[in-house]
Write a sequence for this structure.
């Protein structure tokens, strides 16, 4: 879990290194990669994530092989009264690996495969947008300082004062009302886009804070002055000189933002505000399952456990990544 | 004709409760191919001066003239061609190289930034430069953390040479290095200076390092030049009391006899936010008289002192003004 | 201290003002037709038009905002379609509930407080205790278990935990009744048994986060010089850890606890929805689903006020404990 003591820090070599060893040097990034590969937790959680991402990407292929689609209904497998799946554990069978949904009779396994897709797409896209905005704002605020910094810092503090979930919950409906009438059907792509926008609007501030702090400590370094002394412009200094030194905090905050967004998206959908029912989604599935807790307890398990595994794997991987990129920090 | 001249160069930093007069009216000139040493204690404004010369800092007032052109307030774009002639070497070889760039990329940076394509390609030019500073050109793809302090400083020198400058400001280029490495780097700079005909402004905090490298020396105290002159003049016939004190801090200086020993200055350097009236050195000077507090001595004939020492030896009299355990000169 | 207080008060007011402006714009300027969202069902065109008139939606946005703020501080007349006179903390009229927003809030706020306050006490005690213990027993089985616990908690979904608790304790073991709310003044026992699952769910998740923070904080404090000095001076382990280290480690935790009020409020939204308890959170969710804009706006404002005030209190506490804070 924690940083193993035998990992020595090879970066701070002050004495002349055996330069004759080879011609190509190892970049700090390559060194971090080596440390990451030696970390068992990182390897296991990384592989889990890889499998889950592959499943999400290959959803249509899996559908074809599995032979059941996410919207196919198997009403004949439900009880006539109460629409509860027949058989054990929510109707688990060779045809329906994780059973079928009570009420609608849809296959749980294929809906989860597609749900994974929804969840990962929203989380990754939000994390990317967040990182892009946060990094730009952080670099600009940190390097320029002055009133630009004051404004950006005030916005970050302000965003921190807003209760995220409640605000996200509340803003969804007004945004829909902007573009659609109160009785119109809101398409799924629009909901996805709004979710991503909300996450980005709230999430960029923490990345910006982190990056800003790093930039402030970097901007006085002499290599920045060296670039200026050679006539480098602002763009070169920000993105060629400073950005390469920010990859570590950016990667770490990115990798920890993804599980936070997975959780956030599922929570909003659970509240019936994010992704709504016909579209496969973990949060929406669990929301439906609460009503069947007494009659079909198996229904809540599959999406609940999967989302737990997904978030856990991301969290473990993020922690391992932080350790690998910054060997001095310990938990 | 001088390559670079400064007139009344001043830099004031705003600070809480006033301004810091880091540099307060400097006049000096550097001829082409000449090396000028800029010496003084830490905080005397020498680094600020160096930063202003290469336009990393904007002067508060005064003029910087490079090749008969006033470059004091030239914008970034107009400055570009001049950047090629004016380069800087930094003090800290660990902070001055971007840890995420290969050595090749670091040395090539001035070329890429200015869009220069040397004949034979950037890589060939960079490898020539690495060879020139005594590094293995094969180490093009290595990262700074794989080099020692001395090797890193060589990389910094190679970067400064990339644009074939006419003048290099060297800001304490060896003070962060081990003593054994210092000599190597100084020798490299001397050799480069001779081979390439470069002019140098060499900033240092003691006179020992400068002695073997500079043809002329300027001594700074609290943002002003107190004495400037040819190397032989400064080292053999120092005229400002401060220069004498600095020289006496060098162990084993033949000219100062055993009997005199070391001049210890009492007290601390006054704050540049509120420098003493008149002569700035008077609070620590054993020769100070009333006039020193009233009138600031102008820099005349290379020395700014009301009572400059002639060629005759003058020993510090009135030893009661010198406290033995007073502020040592580092 | 006075200067610090004034400075903080000013910044708090500024933040609250900004929150009110942002939410006002969001709810009354963003939608194409705010009124259509407000009364989705039994509204004919004539009534809609009257509501628009009475809400002053034709007025400039600044005037609308001023009227809204005036309602909060001195009350205002909303017109007959909205129940007439609206008393001092007036947050508008909810068409979905057919009553003033403040009336609804007065009913649901005690519910939410009944969930959050006991849960917060529980998770702070549990989390900080566990974290400190695991830091002091670093590397032992207990420490490993605590790390496992906090990792699990940090990755669990609140509603999933809630569903599991409900399944086990209510439906399988039948130990606790179906979650519900009774006022503590009416029947304290029923109050507790109706909310205990909600407390457990919240406390499990949040104590996991706090255990992690407390452990890291304590480890950092233990490695500091003054702790080592105290040990070297020959002070007993108990005294050093109990008096010096604990106090030093708990201060930053207080700060985080203050910042977390927002997260806790978000937590109650999910908890209330999971257990079907009608508190502030569930009311907000219903309001959002029904497009009840005045209600949504009010809950957002209240939540923001909670967060900002909590931060302010923490700042004051912190400044009282640590004089250095006042200087920066």
């Amino acid at each position: 879990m924690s940083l193993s003591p035998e990992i020595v820090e090879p970066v701070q070599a002050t004495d002349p290194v055996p330069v004759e060893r080879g011609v190509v040097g190892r970049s700090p990034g390559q060194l971090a990669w080596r440390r990451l590969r030696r970390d068992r937790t990182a390897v296991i959680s990384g592989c889990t994530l890889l499998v889950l991402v592959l499943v999400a990407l290959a959803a249509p292929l899996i559908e074809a092989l599995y032979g059941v689609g996410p919207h196919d209904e198997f009403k004949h497998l439900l009880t006539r009264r109460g629409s509860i799946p027949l058989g054990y554990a929510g109707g688990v069978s060779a045809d329906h690996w994780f059973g079928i949904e009570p009420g609608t009779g849809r296959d749980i396994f294929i809906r989860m495969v597609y749900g994974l897709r929804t969840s990962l797409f929203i989380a990754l896209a939000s994390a990317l947008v967040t990182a892009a905005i946060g990094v730009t704002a952080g670099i600009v605020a940190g390097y320029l300082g002055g009133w630009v910094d004051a404004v950006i810092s005030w916005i970050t503090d302000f965003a921190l004062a807003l209760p995220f979930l409640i605000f996200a919950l509340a803003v969804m409906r007004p945004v829909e009302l902007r573009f659609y009438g109160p009785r119109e059907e809101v398409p799924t792509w629009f909901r996805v886009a709004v979710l991503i926008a909300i996450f980005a609007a709230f999430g960029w501030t923490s990345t910006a804070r982190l990056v800003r702090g790093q930039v402030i400590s970097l901007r006085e370094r002499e290599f920045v002055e060296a670039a200026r002394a050679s006539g480098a412009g602002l763009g070169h200094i920000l993105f060629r000189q400073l950005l390469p030194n920010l990859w570590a905090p950016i990667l770490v905050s990115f990798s920890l933002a993804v599980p936070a967004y997975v959780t956030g998206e599922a929570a909003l959908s659970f509240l019936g505000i994010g992704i709504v029912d016909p579209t496969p989604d973990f949060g929406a599935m669990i929301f439906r399952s609460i009503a069947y807790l007494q009659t079909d307890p198996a229904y809540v398990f599959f999406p609940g456990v999967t989302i737990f595994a997904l978030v856990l794997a991301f969290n473990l991987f993020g922690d391992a990544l932080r350790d690998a990129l910054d060997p001095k920090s310990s938990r | 004709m001088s390559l670079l001249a400064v007139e009344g160069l001043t830099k004031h930093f705003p600070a809480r409760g006033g301004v810091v007069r880091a540099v307060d009216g400097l006049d000096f000139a550097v001829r082409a191919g000449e090396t000028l040493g800029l010496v003084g204690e830490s905080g005397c404004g020498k680094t600020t001066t160096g930063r202003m010369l290469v336009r990393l800092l904007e002067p508060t007032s005064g003029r910087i003239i490079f090749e008969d052109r006033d470059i004091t307030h030239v914008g970034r774009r107009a400055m570009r061609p001049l950047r090629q002639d004016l380069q800087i070497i930094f003090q800290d070889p660990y902070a001055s190289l971007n840890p995420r760039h290969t050595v090749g990329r670091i040395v090539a940076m001035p070329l890429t930034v200015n869009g220069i394509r040397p004949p034979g390609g950037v890589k060939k030019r960079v490898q020539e430069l690495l060879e020139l500073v005594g590094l293995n050109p094969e180490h093009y793809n290595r990262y700074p953390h794989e080099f020692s302090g001395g090797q890193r400083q060589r990389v910094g020198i190679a970067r400064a040479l990339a644009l074939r400058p006419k003048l290099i400001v060297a800001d304490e280029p060896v003070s962060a290095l081990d003593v054994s490495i210092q000599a190597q780097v100084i020798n490299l700079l001397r050799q480069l200076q001779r081979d390439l005909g470069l002019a140098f402004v060499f900033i240092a905090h003691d006179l020992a390092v400068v002695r073997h490298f500079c043809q002329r020396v300027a001594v700074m105290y609290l943002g002003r030049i107190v004495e400037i002159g040819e190397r032989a003049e400064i080292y053999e016939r120092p005229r400002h009391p401060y220069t004498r004190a600095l020289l006496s801090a060098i162990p084993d200086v033949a000219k100062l006899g055993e009997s005199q020993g070391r001049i210890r200055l009492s007290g601390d350097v006054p704050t540049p936010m509120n420098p003493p009236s008149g002569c700035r050195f008077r609070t620590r000077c054993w020769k100070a008289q009333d006039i020193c507090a009233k009138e600031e001595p102008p820099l005349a004939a290379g020395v700014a002192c009301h009572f400059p020492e002639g060629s005759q030896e003058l020993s510090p009299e009135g030893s009661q003004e010198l406290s033995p355990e007073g502020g040592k000169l580092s | 201290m006075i200067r610090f207080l004034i400075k903080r008060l000013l910044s708090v007011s500024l933040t609250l003002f900004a929150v009110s402006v942002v939410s006002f714009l969001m709810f009354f300027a963003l939608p194409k037709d705010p009124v259509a969202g407000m009364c989705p069902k039994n509204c004919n065109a004539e009534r809609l038009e009257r509501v628009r008139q009475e809400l002053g939606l034709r007025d400039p946005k600044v005037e609308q905002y001023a009227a809204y703020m005036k309602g909060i501080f001195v009350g205002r007349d909303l017109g007959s379609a909205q129940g007439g006179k609206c008393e001092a903390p007036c947050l508008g009229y909810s068409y979905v509930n057919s009553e003033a927003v403040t009336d609804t809030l007065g009913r649901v706020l005690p519910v939410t407080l009944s969930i959050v306050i006991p849960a917060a006490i529980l998770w702070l005690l549990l989390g900080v205790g566990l974290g400190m213990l695991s830091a002091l027993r670093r590397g032992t089985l207990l420490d490993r278990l605590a790390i496992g616990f906090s990792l699990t908690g940090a990755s669990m979904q609140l509603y999933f935990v809630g569903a599991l608790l409900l399944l086990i304790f209510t439906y399988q073991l039948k130990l606790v009744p179906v979650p519900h709310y009774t006022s503590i003044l009416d029947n304290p026992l029923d109050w507790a048994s109706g909310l205990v699952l909600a407390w457990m769910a919240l406390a499990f998740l949040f104590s996991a986060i706090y255990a992690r923070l407390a452990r890291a904080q304590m480890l950092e404090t233990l490695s500091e010089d003054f702790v080592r000095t105290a040990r070297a001076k020959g002070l007993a382990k108990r005294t050093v850890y109990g008096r010096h280290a604990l106090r030093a480690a708990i201060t930053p935790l207080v700060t985080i606890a203050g910042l977390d009020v927002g997260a806790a409020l978000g937590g109650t939204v999910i908890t209330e929805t999971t257990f079907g308890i009608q508190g502030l959170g569930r009311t907000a969710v219903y309001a959002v689903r029904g497009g009840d804009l005045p209600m949504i706006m009010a809950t957002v404002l209240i939540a923001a006020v909670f967060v900002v005030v909590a931060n302010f209190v923490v700042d004051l506490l912190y400044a009282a404990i640590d004089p250095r804070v006042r200087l920066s």
